[in-house]
Each structure stands twice: as C-alpha cells, then as structure tokens.
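Q: How would the structure tokens look for this protein?
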Amino acid sequence: MGFAISDFSALRCLRDMTAGTELQTTIDLVADPDDPKDLYCLDNSPVPAL
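A: Here is the predicted structure in token form.
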C-alpha cells in the first residue's frame, strides 16, 4: 500500500498467523564481516571477465 504502518501491521499479522508452523524460518540479518572496513568482502557477485 505504500504506508509503512500498514505494511508493518500486515507483516505482524502474518507472523502471528504462522507461528509454530514450518512456514517460519529464522534468518540472521546482521552482517559480520572479517574486515568491517572492507565493504566489498560481502559482495558475492561474480567478477566480470576482462
């Protein structure tokens, strides 16, 4: 809809409705790079051929 509060409410409703089922998966959203100053270390895209 474009309104953050309605999107958030819909996500919470879905979360509550699927609680305890195989439809929910926990994922880690916090990056933990070896070198925090090297932002490109998290980019896993293929290297272009020269």
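The chain has one helix and no strands.

The helical segments are 4-17.

Upvote if useful.
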